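Hi everyone, sorry if this is the wrong subforum. Our group has a chain we'd like a structural model of before ordering constructs, and none of us has done structure prediction before. Sequence below.
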Amino acid sequence: MSDGNFNRALLPKNELTAGIRAGKAQMRTKAAQAFQETIDYFLPEMTEEEKREMKEEFMSHLRK
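Answer:
Right subforum, don't worry. Here is the predicted structure as tokens:
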């Protein structure tokens, strides 16, 4: 390692990135639930198909 080269397999696993991914997944789940509740409250006359399409569009924006 004196020349600055190293093998990444020898480095410890980074638990931080796993925690960040888990946190993002939890927040996406909470956002989807909140969006569904908001649609149900403000737009009760919409069909389930329309609500599903709106939720899918919302979730696609979250993944960007």
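For your construct planning: The longest helix spans residues 15-42. The radius of gyration is 20 Å.
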